[in-house]
């Protein structure tokens, strides 16, 4: 399997002869901030950060290269830092509407269908085959105080590949531990910039959560993503490295935007 870090949680995954584009947030840099959201429903603990325009960085390669050869778009949830969202309520403007979409629930599927996508599949927690890869929806908890909507994790299995766990936007909690113990994935992708809002608390993993994953599956390789592009992040790549060193966590990769890793 091959993972390519694009930007934030956007990654290209080559797995069992299929290519998945995960959470395709492809807009140019500096397009919106928290204060631009109608009604201003979310606030960042550091008020100054609410004015920082996101995403912080442009794509590391031409969009045509990112979109070339994609078999499936895989969207863990519809949030503006995981897929492009338009003011008319549609999503995925830069994407090819003929490429199949895999999403978490019927509510998200309805949005994709209204946005012009022709082939939309809601992933099952019983597992579904996509070519030679079996994908299974697993639980995620998107917030420590009040979850910021639904999100999902995905377990990938194939006789051709290592078991791969895409945790998605989640904190460490019992269901994540259960998924790790059940499937024993050899590669685990974690969204871990410790993004937080006043209303929801911490939305995704921090260094201590990553440490908990590392202790639970000590033989796995951790792929750390969702870094350095959103204003509500509490950790950067730089600070996360220091926090993990303090916890003696070393079994991880933290790719730069545009970097590929083969497992």
Main attributes?
16 strands, seven-stranded mixed sheet, 263 residues, single chain, 5 helices
Q: Briefly, what is this?
A:
The chain is an alpha/beta fold and 263 residues long. The protein has helices spanning 63-67, 106-114, 174-183, 207-216, 237-246; strands at 2-7, 10-15, 18-22, 72-74, 101-103, 120-122, 128-130, 133-138, 153-157, 164-166, 187-191, 196-197, 201-202, 221-225, 252-253, 260-262.
Report on this model:
With 263 residues, the protein is α/β, with parallel strands linked by helices. Helices cover 17% and strands 24% of the residues. The protein has 5 helices and 16 strands. It has helices at 63-67, 106-114, 174-183, 207-216, 237-246; strands at residues 2-7, 10-15, 18-22, 72-74, 101-103, 120-122, 128-130, 133-138, 153-157, 164-166, 187-191, 196-197, 201-202, 221-225, 252-253, 260-262. It has a 7-stranded mixed sheet, covered by helices on one side. A 7-stranded mixed sheet has the order 7-8-9-10-11-14-15.
Topology record:
Layout lengths: L1 E6 L2 E6 L2 E5 L40 H5 L4 E3 L26 E3 L2 H9 L5 E3 L5 E3 L2 E6 L14 E5 L6 E3 L7 H10 L3 E5 L4 E2 L3 E2 L4 H10 L4 E5 L11 H10 L5 E2 L6 E3 L1
Parallel strand pairs: 3-4, 4-5, 5-6, 10-11, 11-14, 14-15
Antiparallel strand pairs: 1-2, 1-16, 2-3, 7-8, 8-9, 9-10, 12-13
Q: In terms of structural class, how would the helical and strand content be classed?
A: alpha/beta
Oligomer state of the chains in this structure: single chain
Shape: globular
Over the alpha carbons, how many angstroms does the gyration radius reach? 17 Å
So how many helices?
A: 5
Major sheet summary line: 7 strands, mixed
């Amino acid at each position: 399997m091959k993972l390519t870090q694009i930007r934030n949680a956007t990654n290209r995954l080559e797995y069992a002869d299929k290519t998945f584009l995960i959470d395709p947030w492809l807009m140019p840099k500096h397009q919106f901030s928290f204060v631009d959201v109608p009604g201003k429903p979310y606030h960042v603990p550091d008020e100054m950060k609410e004015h920082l325009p996101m995403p912080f960085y442009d794509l590391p390669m031409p969009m045509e290269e990112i979109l070339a050869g994609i078999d499936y778009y895989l969207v863990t949830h519809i949030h503006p830092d995981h897929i492009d969202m338009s003011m008319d309520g549609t999503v995925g403007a830069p994407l090819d509407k003929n490429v199949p979409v895999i999403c978490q629930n019927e509510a998200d599927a309805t949005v994709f269908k209204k946005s012009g996508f022709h082939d939309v599949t809601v992933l099952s927690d019983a597992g579904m085959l996509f070519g030679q890869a079996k994908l299974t929806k697993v639980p995620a908890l998107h917030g420590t105080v009040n979850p910021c909507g639904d999100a999902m994790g995905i377990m990938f299995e194939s006789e051709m590949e290592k078991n791969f766990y895409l945790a998605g936007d989640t904190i460490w909690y019992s269901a994540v531990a259960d998924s790790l113990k059940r499937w024993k994935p050899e590669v685990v992708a974690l969204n871990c910039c410790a993004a937080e809002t006043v209303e929801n608390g911490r939305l995704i993993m921090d260094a201590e959560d990553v440490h908990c994953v590392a202790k639970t599956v000590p033989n796995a390789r951790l792929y750390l993503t969702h870094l350095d592009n959103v204003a509500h992040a509490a950790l950067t790549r730089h600070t996360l490295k220091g926090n993990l060193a303090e916890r003696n966590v070393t079994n991880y990769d933290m790719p730069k935007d545009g970097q590929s890793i083969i497992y």
